[in-house]
């Protein structure tokens, strides 16, 4: 076993190396100072034709390199079913009109568009008719509700960090309330220069967010008692050295399309939004920490600031405005001497890692809902990623949004003070790409997508960033755990009973002098009692496997890590399918 752990450790060290190599391929692009010089000399001599030409050629070369499939949306006669939709109709109707796509009725159509509140309805709609109306491609992954709260995201990221500490370091350290109150107080009182931001669990578009100046801020009452704690809050380390755009803090809203959970297939859209604050950024002091226009990038807040700048009609050419396109912000960063290709690559890597963290949990909840029909459930999902960049060009995932805003209107103040609502050309431009191209890709089967598009290549505005193959070995460990859980559950996914769980102990590789068969019963009972559920769900199962792994290997291996131990247990258990498939009556 020690030998196994050693070879596994070597493998993993190699993976780390590979990972670093991946990062190093970034050095193909000019480094910061080189780029700074190049951009500077270009800017200083605008009339310098040769340089201008070289710059253009370089740009052209880059564009040529991009491998892309171009699909004219009009050439695909899609029909969209809006039967369960109540929101987001303006953008969908706009896209349908533009491409002359038809509206489908009843259970017909290519795409079933369902809005944020319709997941349940869509589930009913599809679940009941799934076997008959399998051609419908549904615009929500049912399990995605899981990632719509910050607490859930936090707990998944904490789990991944526990297993892959060097990889999952892009989500700021987060405490959930009230569970982590004591740990937070301890860290806060160390006062080691870190600031903290408190946010309501569910996205509130900036409302209720504050920077914690004293522990008392976390209570609804002057009494520092846990019963008065602001319960549905998370507290997060505040990224206090943000990269600035026009001297202002900003974040990116990027759109990620998932078209298949197994194999995991995902894309990033080339376009997105940059949302700026409306007051110049300064390091946190007690006098500025409540200034939301300096510290929070939410559009919904900043649009009320007197410094708010609406984007110009020519937003693709003029890089101005409190809300801009991703492309526009990248142009400005490039001019500032920032190594934008490197930044883009880092952002993509971060998103890929994040997705590998959440996808197995999404798969689990999707399987709980769809049971044995889950593979036939034809779903896709557009997720909004909010990403903050620090001055070391490190991307931080601040929040993900399972229902990113598809609003394409904005309120404009007239000169006489009255207000009017009109279409925002910028939002319409970005969000049309995001949705229209998602439809075009989602109607292809996973196999077709892998064969016809392929990793690293674009289909219209989307670049495939995951093609089912984990970019780092073992990053699919949680997928294997879902497989194992499913094997053990048998026909009823989501409810693992004690008898089935204890079949693991039939595998001679999974018992030793430290862990005997009866320990399996004890482990099961202990977790079941804690969860107050009759059977183990996936999260309980994970806890049970961790417990088994620890007991089986901890005291034996000097280089024990949770990741290695769980990998061993899962691999051994999956290698012995005959153990798990024995008829129920033949236990042990
Ligand atoms: P909401 O769901 O209400 O929009 P977010 O988590 O997106 O909440 O936070 C709102 C804004 O606060 C972000 O857009 C960002 O500007 C700022 N912010 C949030 N968390 C952090 C953090 N950890 N460090 C720095 N700024 C943050």
From TrEMBL:
Q: Which residues does the annotated region (Disordered) include?
A: 1-38
Q: Output a single Gene Ontology CC term carried by this record.
A: ciliary basal body
Show the stretches that span the lipid bilayer: none
How is this protein named in the record? ATP-grasp domain-containing protein
Q: Can you supply a Gene Ontology BP term from the record?
A: microtubule cytoskeleton organization
The keyword Nucleotide-binding belongs to this UniProt entry's keyword annotation: yes
Q: Which residue numbers delimit the ATP-grasp domain?
A: 161-434
UniProt GO molecular function: ATP binding; metal ion binding; tubulin binding; tubulin-glutamic acid ligase activity
Enumerate composition-biased segments (Polar residues): 27-36
Q: Does the keyword Nucleotide-binding apply?
A: yes
Tell me which UniProt keywords the record has, alphabetically: ATP-binding, Ligase, Nucleotide-binding
């Amino acid at each position: 076993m020690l030998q196994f752990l050693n070879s596994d450790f070597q493998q993993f060290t190699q993976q780390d190396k590979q990972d670093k190599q991946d990062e190093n391929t970034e050095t193909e692009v000019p480094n910061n100072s080189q780029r700074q010089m190049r951009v500077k000399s270009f800017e200083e001599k605008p009339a310098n034709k040769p340089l201008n030409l070289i710059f253009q050629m370089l740009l052209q070369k880059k564009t040529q390199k991009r491998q892309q499939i171009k699909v004219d949306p009009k050439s695909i006669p899609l029909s969209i079913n809006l039967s369960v939709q109540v929101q987001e109709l303006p953008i969908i109707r706009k896209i349908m009109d533009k491409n002359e796509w038809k509206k489908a009725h009843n259970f017909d159509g290519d795409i079933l568009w369902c809005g944020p509140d319709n997941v349940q309805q869509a589930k009913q709609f599809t679940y009941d008719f799934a076997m008959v109306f399998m051609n419908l491609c549904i615009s929500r992954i049912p399990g995605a509700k899981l990632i719509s709260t910050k607490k859930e995201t936090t707990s998944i990221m904490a789990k991944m960090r526990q297993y892959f500490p060097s990889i999952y370091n892009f989500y700021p350290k987060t405490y959930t309330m009230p569970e982590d109150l004591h740990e937070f107080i301890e860290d806060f009182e160390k006062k080691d220069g870190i600031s903290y931001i408190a946010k309501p669990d569910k996205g509130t578009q900036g409302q209720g967010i504050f920077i914690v100046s004293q522990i008392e801020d976390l209570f609804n009452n002057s009494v520092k008692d846990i019963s008065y704690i602001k319960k549905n809050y998370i507290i997060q380390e505040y990224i206090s050295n943000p990269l600035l755009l026009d001297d202002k803090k900003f974040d990116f809203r990027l759109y990620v399309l998932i078209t298949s959970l197994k194999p995991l297939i995902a894309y990033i859209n080339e376009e997105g939004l940059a949302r700026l604050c409306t007051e110049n950024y300064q390091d946190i002091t007690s006098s500025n920490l409540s200034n939301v226009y300096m510290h929070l990038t939410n559009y919904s807040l900043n649009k009320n600031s007197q410094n708010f700048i609406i984007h110009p009609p020519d937003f693709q050419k003029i890089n101005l405005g409190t809300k801009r396109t991703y492309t526009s912000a990248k142009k400005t960063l490039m001019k500032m001497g920032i190594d934008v290709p490197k930044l883009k690559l880092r952002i993509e890597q971060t998103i890929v890692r994040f997705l590998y963290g959440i996808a197995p949990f999404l798969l689990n909840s999707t399987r709980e809902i769809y049971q044995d029909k889950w593979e036939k459930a034809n779903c896709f999902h557009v997720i909004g990623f909010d990403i903050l960049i620090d001055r070391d060009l490190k991307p931080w995932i601040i929040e993900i949004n399972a229902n990113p805003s598809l609003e394409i209107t904005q309120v404009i103040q007239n000169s006489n003070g009255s207000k009017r609502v009109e279409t925002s050309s910028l939002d319409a431009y970005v969000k049309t790409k995001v949705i229209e191209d998602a439809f075009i890709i989602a109607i292809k089967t996973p196999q077709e997508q892998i064969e016809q598009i392929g990793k690293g290549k674009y289909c219209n505005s989307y670049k495939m960033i995951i093609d089912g193959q984990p970019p780092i070995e073992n990053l699919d460990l949680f997928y294997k755990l879902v497989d194992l859980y499913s094997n053990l559950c048998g026909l009823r996914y989501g409810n693992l009973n004690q008898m089935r769980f204890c079949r693991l102990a039939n595998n001679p590789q999974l018992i030793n002098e430290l862990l005997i068969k009866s320990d399996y019963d004890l482990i099961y009972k202990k977790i079941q009692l804690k969860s107050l559920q009759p059977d183990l769900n996936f999260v309980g199962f994970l806890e049970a496997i961790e417990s088994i792994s620890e007991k089986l290997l901890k005291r034996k291996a000097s280089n024990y890590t949770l990741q290695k131990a769980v990998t061993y247990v899962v691999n051994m258990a999956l290698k012995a399918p005959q153990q798990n498939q024995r008829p129920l009556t033949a236990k042990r």
